[in-house]
Design brief:
The protein has 263 residues and is α/β, with parallel strands linked by helices. It contains nine helices and 13 strands.
Amino acid sequence: MVKKEWYLEYQLKINRPGLLGDISSLLGMLSINIVTINGVDEGRRGLLILAKDDDQIVRLESILNTMDTIKVIKIREPKLRDRLAVRHGRYINRDADDKKTFRFVRDELGLLVDFMAELFKQEGHKLIGIRGMPRVGKTESVVAGSVCANKKWLFVSSTLLKQTIRNQLIEDEYSADNLFIIDGIVSTRRANERHWQLVREIMRLPAVKVVEHPDIFVQNTEYTMNDFDYIIELRNEPGEEIVYDVVQRNNMFTDSDFGGFDF
């Protein structure tokens, strides 16, 4: 029988020496293998484990609930956030009200890149928005996530190296294996109808699309925030306000800035 992966998370009530050894021994007696273990929050540990049938997990949970040194928080099939929490030793900050919004700060760039890479690996249409102030690392993180996911990235509009507004793609660039990056401010402030025809074509592709400044993008297009599958917020520090009048001033260009650079 093929073993099934589970995620176990428990809170330490009494952090005594040898506790982890006791739990490891219990897993061994139940023929449950440990894949990975790590601290995932203050006073919490998370484990990825392998069991050959669900009855093993039922017995494990029953025994763990009798222990006065720990409290079981989660025991379930692992979600993406669970896997990343064990891998990085911390949970992704998720909005309590809007479940599709995830928040990061600059010292979590490794976690952010890993998170995006896992999203980029998923097949089919996926629309991801990313918010943040200028020079916080939005585009660089998207590109790094693309590399980790082994995806080719294409700038449809961008300011990373030189202001880019594309009006067409070559034939092999329409591949669903590519990742398309759109700067919402550049597209809405500088683009012509040919560019928007291209954006609509890309939106219909069964591929991953990342839109920087999604709020500005939806203000000026037929798309809405409900069309986005994930919203990522990146800040320099916790509590930083993302102010779009500042963002727009930093993204205003003159015609000479583009120098005829038209794809």
